[in-house]
Write a structure and sequence with these properties.
The structure is a single chain. This protein is mainly alpha-helical. It is built from four helices and no strands. The protein has one domain. Helices cover about 60% and strands about 0% of the residues. The protein is globular, with a radius of gyration of 14 Å.
Length: about 100
């Protein structure tokens, strides 16, 4: 029997969203590198919102640039790497809400 774990599903979704955002702007010939932060700000803001709503200490606020530096760095990260980055932030914010 499969157990439903909403936190696992959420972290999977968040990691995929970060990976896909990076993948979308990864072609330096099509997307100017000096605008990467501008292109990826929305994805970082989205992660901040999910962390704010779903972690124990997130209600105090999560900076909108919570993952912007990781998003802007090359090479792009795998979904597995993003899970580690996001799990670090979840731990930093007291873990998932019960």
């Amino acid at each position: 029997m499969k157990t439903n774990c909403p936190q696992k599903e959420l972290i999977d979704f968040m990691a995929e969203a970060c990976h896909y955002a990076q993948e979308h702007v990864d072609d330096s010939e099509a997307w100017q590198d000096h605008h990467r932060e501008f292109y990826l700000t929305c994805a970082s803001y989205q992660m901040a919102c999910f962390l704010a709503q779903n972690t124990k200490y997130g209600h105090s606020g999560v900076e909108s640039d919570v993952v912007i530096s990781e998003l802007c760095k090359r090479p792009m990260k795998s979904v597995k790497q993003w899970k580690k980055i996001l799990e670090y932030h979840v731990t930093e914010l007291g873990g998932w809400k019960e």
